[in-house]
Specification:
CATH class of the largest domain: Alpha Beta
Helix content: 25-40%
Number of helices: 15
Largest sheet: 6 strands, parallel
CATH architecture of the largest domain: 3-Layer(aba) Sandwich
Strand content: 15-25%
Strand order of the largest sheet: 7-8-6-9-10-11
CATH superfamily of the largest domain: Mur-like, catalytic domain
Distance between the termini: 47 Å
Number of strands: 21
Radius of gyration: 24 Å
Shape: globular
CATH topology of the largest domain: UDP-N-acetylmuramoyl-L-alanine:D-glutamate ligase
Structural class: alpha/beta
């Protein structure tokens, strides 16, 4: 946004400009909603929250050197009484932030790829970045900036020379993907998977598919939809005026051969050879989705693809005693649980394979049965199962190996610390609310003590 002056920015956001930025100031580098970390040259947007109204910190943001602030009228006087940058006001700062992001997306005139899915959207986004970066100036969403607040911030952080913008899109209920699509106006929409996530809110797997398919509905005619091959739940939502590319077994983009780290992929008759640093089956499926999207924007992937998983998202750590820790503690649902257990089973182990599995939240009335099914699946992949939380305890009903139950993450950390032996592989996975990161922190802490 550095090319925009305060008047242009106010027009794009649909807000009132009460005070201009200093004559020597160029436009803002990006937007932020955190007054504690605001840096010179940034636009601070004061959003009302459950605990505090961010607009109260507009004056502090100006004192910290912010290019300007965007706040509700109630905080205008406080901001105007503080020397410094521009002061913009609106009754709805969030809506203004979203309008501003949409205007900047259009100003960029780049290709936008939206990525959503019940599982795999983050890894697919990261893989896309690695496939595209050698060929195009590519920017991708960071961390979990994938909501109605986070995604606009990522759009506004994209530099003016961006050629491809990859945006992760999350949802908790109906209408949210549609809202993100209106802001991002994607040229390619990728739905990585459909699974039983947020059932408590949406009620059925069909409703989940419809919520994810809002991305398809939000595409302009002639755009490209990338979908899993054979996913019947998405069939009612496909459109004749779009280019639809399927991936996975039987799809337009599918795996031909796997020779260790070397993969051969058939992309609509084009043979693409890649070398990767990961062996997990679900990540290789995500790679197919990423290849399909890359081809859709005119990039033919090639070479080596290095995927670095972050803590909580399948990251592997080698601990003393040749113990392998698979930290997948960030989140969980039935499909991702099975994928993680497959990864556990495929990991060479001199000792035992331990699965530390926590509650899967927001699954609705069928939650107990979903947990029992995961326990049955673990029965063929793990030697030891440690359930964590009241819902996860149902996993033990169908697990015949060594079993332990912990009421919470702190108790689980104690149990796992005693159980782990030389050569073991330990998978830690559960919904974020269970805080199983504490188990990983305990094991890593003991490793460095």
């Amino acid at each position: 946004m550095r090319s925009w002056n305060a008047h242009q920015l106010a027009l794009a956001a649909g807000v009132q400009l009460l005070r201009d930025a200093p004559a020597t100031a160029v436009g803002p580098d990006r937007a932020t909603i955190d007054s504690r970390t605001v840096a010179p040259g940034e636009l601070f947007v004061g959003l009302p929250g459950q605990r505090a109204d961010g607009g109260r910190f507009g004056a502090a943001a100006l004192s910290a050197g912010a290019w300007g602030v965007l706040v509700a009228p109630a905080h205008a006087d406080s901001a105007l009484s503080t020397p410094g940058g521009a002061v913009l006001v609106t009754e709805d700062p969030l809506a203004a932030l979203q309008r501003l992001a949409n205007a900047w997306r259009r100003e960029l005139d780049c290709v936008v790829i939206g990525v959503t899915g019940s599982t795999g959207k983050t890894s697919t986004k990261e893989l896309l970045l690695r496939l595209l970066a050698p060929h195009r100036r590519t920017v991708a969403s960071q961390a979990n900036f994938n909501t109605e607040i986070g995604m606009p911030l990522q759009v506004l952080a994209a530099p003016a020379d961006t050629q491809v913008l990859v945006l992760e899109m999350a949802m908790r209920g109906a209408g949210q993907i549609a809202e993100l699509a209106r802001i991002a106006e994607p040229d390619v929409g990728v739905i990585v998977s459909i699974g039983p996530v947020h059932l408590e809110l949406l009620g059925s797997i069909e409703a989940i598919a419809a919520a994810k398919a809002e991305l398809i509905a939000g595409l302009a005619p002639g755009a490209t939809a990338v979908v899993p091959a054979g996913e019947r739940l998405l069939t009612p939502h496909l459109r004749a005026d779009l280019q639809t590319v399927s991936f996975g077994r039987g799809g337009r983009v599918q795996m031909m051969h796997e020779h260790g780290d070397r993969l051969e992929i058939d992309a609509g008759g084009d043979r693409i050879e890649l070398e990767v640093n990961f062996s997990e089956a679900h990540l290789r499926v995500d790679l197919l989705a990423a290849v399909a999207a890359a081809c859709a924007v005119g990039v033919r992937p090639s070479g080596r693809v290095e995927l670095t998983l972050s803590a909580g998202r399948g990251q592997r750590r080698l601990l003393p005693g040749e113990v392998t820790l698979i930290d997948d503690s960030y989140n969980a649902n039935p499909d991702s649980m099975r994928a993680a257990l497959d990864a556990l089973a495929a990991t060479p182990a001199v000792g035992r394979r331990l699965a530390v599995l926590g509650d899967m939240l927001e699954l609705g009335p069928e939650a107990p049965e979903f947990h029992r099914e995961v326990g049955a699946y673990a029965d063929g992949t793990a030697d030891v199962l440690v359930s964590v939380g009241p819902l996860a305890a149902a996993m033990l009903d169908r697990f015949s190996g060594e079993r332990h139950s912990a009421p919470d993450a702190e108790s689980a950390a104690e149990i796992v610390s005693r159980l782990v032996g030389a050569g073991d592989v330990v998978l830690v996975k559960g919904s974020n609310g269970v805080r199983l990161s504490l188990v990983c922190e305990r094991l890593l802490g003991e490793a460095t003590a």
